[in-house]
Amino acid sequence: MNQPKIDTSPKVSDEVRKTTCYMCACRCGINVHMKNGNVAYIEGNRDHPVNRGVLCAKGSAGIMQHTAPSRLRAPMKRVGPRGSGEFQEISWDEALELAVSWIKPLRETAPEKLAFFTGRDQSQSFTGMWAQAFGTPNYAAHGGFCSVNMATAGIYTMGGAFWEFGQPDWDHTKLFILFGVAEDHDSNPIKMGIGKIKARGARVIGVNPIRSGYNAVADDWYGITPGTDGLLILSLIHCLLKAGKIDLEYLARYTNAPVLVNSDPKSDEYGLFLRDDDGKELVVDRRTGKPTPVDADGVEPDLGGHFRRAGITHVPVLHLLAEKYLDPQYAPEAVADRCGIAATRIRALAAEIARVAFSETVTLNQPWTDFRGVTHETMTGRPVAFHSMRGISAHANGFQTARALHLLQILIGSVETPGGFRFKPPYPKPSTAHPKPHCKVTPGKPLDGPHLGYPQGPADLCLKDDGSPARIDKAFTWENPLSAHGLMHMVIANAHAGDPYRIDTLFLYMANMAWNSSMNTRAVIDMLTDKDDSGDYVIPRIIYSDAYSSEMVAYADLILPDTTYLERHDCISLLDRPICEADAAADAIRWPVVEPDRNVRGFQSVLIDLGARLGLPGFVNDDGSAKYTDYADYIVNHERRPGVGPLAGWRMGDKGVQHGRGNPNAAQIDAYISNGGFFVEHVPEKAAYFKPWNKDYQDWAVKFGLYDKPAPYLFQLYLEPLRRFQLAAEGHGPIQPPEHLRDQIIAKFDPLPTWYATDSDDAYPVHALTQRPMAMYHSWGSQNAWLRQLHGRNPLYLPTRLMREHGLSDGDWARVTSPHGEIIVPVAEMAALNDNTVWTWNAIGKRKGAWALEPDAPEATKGFLLNHLISELLPPRGDGLRWANSDPITGQAAWFDLKVKIEKAPPQEESKPAFAPIKSPVGTGPKELRRKS
Fold this sequence. Notes:
The chain is 23% helix and 17% strand. It contains 23 helices and 36 strands. It is globular.
């Protein structure tokens, strides 16, 4: 018989090179298969601690990211008007000298006139160091646009937050509850973890207006009304308190629940903690009944202890907490209508949490010693684990909502205990262990310290002598004091308005501000192209670095083309956002598994070069020569402090190679490559839990180089820094807020988590949300040939009620209007959706001409953004003030507060608004893309 001969085991590669994925922020290990010097395909690395061989659609499609026709090819300078896309290719020397000619005079005269902001670059410890050396106060990354509420609330409350700071105890948890989780973040570890706990019969509960992704596989789903998560959580706390289901021993030992609060209304320190002469917080000691420093040897804090002095009874935090949350306003019946969840279901959820936490405790036969010197024979924990992300964060009440969720898990004793939430090294770190923000500008000199940090009170704000904001984004001001990640989304609007001052050069990296990374796309484009009365651009110069021809490219004056992630060195560092899991400290590298075939350079190496050309401290030697040849040289030889550098593995000691602390090792990167691109050091078993108070963990962390000295601390149920801001607003202290902000600060800066409704207009009754699909990350994926087959267009999903109410069917079109704008888009029905909420996938819609897509690409015709309906400013209130559409505590963009109205529209050829095509320096891609080998 003439059967075809089929090679069932073809040779797919002749070499495997192991590195780290960059298709999302999971940073999984990958095996890059090479054939004839080209990338053949990508698979997961089974030895890698993050993904253990699992790889998602994004990771597998990395080959298409690497070969994308939209890749930029050479440095360019603009030769036509901004937005025209008309550029001239230039050499790297010309590009860098042009950049130096623009920004060197700024450093010598007014460093603040350079605003340097980066997107999701994963090298913020390095880019922040560069900006600090330059001397500008205007630096931050994308966190203020993404989830700073979650991170900041976690740091202030317990020394870490979800995802990059910690993870559920997948091996022991028996109840896993997700609040508003983004599907593109941490996807492989969460999918692996959910699979592990469901295989054991553990329950998964999803709290989210939208039932997709992780919520779709949950055993129960709570389709909550957007923006009311905090109210639901406080109602759960109300139920637990009434039932007596809180962990009193845990609260007494490890939190500030027993700390005495000044209860004298006439005191300038009313609401602050009582302290001894050394500044130590006081508790009532059970043994003596007297006020005693909280960390005194052998102290037994009394949760019910009161202290009477000068006719005033001072009470502990737990007293105030119980008084606040036992109020009937938090009863399930009182919150049910606003949350969109029946009171019986709220009570059922509280009962389930209590049952699992207190009837199914997990005990490990592992002795450990706490920071007070007490030895515990076992490790006992409450097996309820929570996880959350930007869904509860991107609201104007997001900080207090995230605080409430952290409070809930602390009250039941499920943080850093078996079965609960666990920190990933280098966390935990309390807010007091982090720097405070710095903003002192001295021409020709570095900034006086790190840009970002955690203020402890009004004295730590970034204000000039006259009280005006020192930063262009107004971070760390009375408008948003705890803006720990900066406010990237406010930079262009403030720079255009000259509020608080004018800048000269906007320097952006991987931040698509002319499209999906802005709060209001059309307005931002207008700001970038606006000219003053003299015919000059209001924002005089824009330098932009990206690997691809994004929408932002057309609005830059100088383009510094980046490489793809397979063509450069990167460092996923313990100084920044490492790849750790809870049981180990770990970091990783990327390295050029292939060399670029274009005239491009890794952005971090470009910053190294610019730093040397500018003569920045830390980038040049004493004789003025360049300190580092490129980013790889920096990764190996830079020391942030003695013995601690970007990478913790394979450093040099007196007896040779060692891990953790150590001297630079010229062969370090080679060692990482030989080990699969990563390093991991496991936490000792007796240090695995109770990390903030575990003596063995603290000693291990010091030896390894995570801390310089042991730093045990208490979880902050009551957040004293917020009370300090309230006191100032009440008229106490030398640093006072503006009059128009006093009421806001008093009402919303409650030191115990609170909930308040966000701005609303009855004319716009429907909530509108975006979320990213698992197959896309930020805007990168929708130019990827493989991933476009999964999400090439995006409808607006409506619940059944709204579809029927407006006479809509799948494929119909709807006009969606907000106070800021209007879109006309296709719709589709989704039953598993909060019945007053609409949503769509984010960042699918593209502008014609960008990303090397054809003009009729579905992303540019049927795809759309909700950004056109949002603004960085709220509608005018009639008081003449510019009120930001953000959280008043951190400044996080509140784009999930969007409210709209909907009406049926005639069928359209394209989604509206339809922007005119922009000219791309790389043109459009070929009809077919074939590998040559």
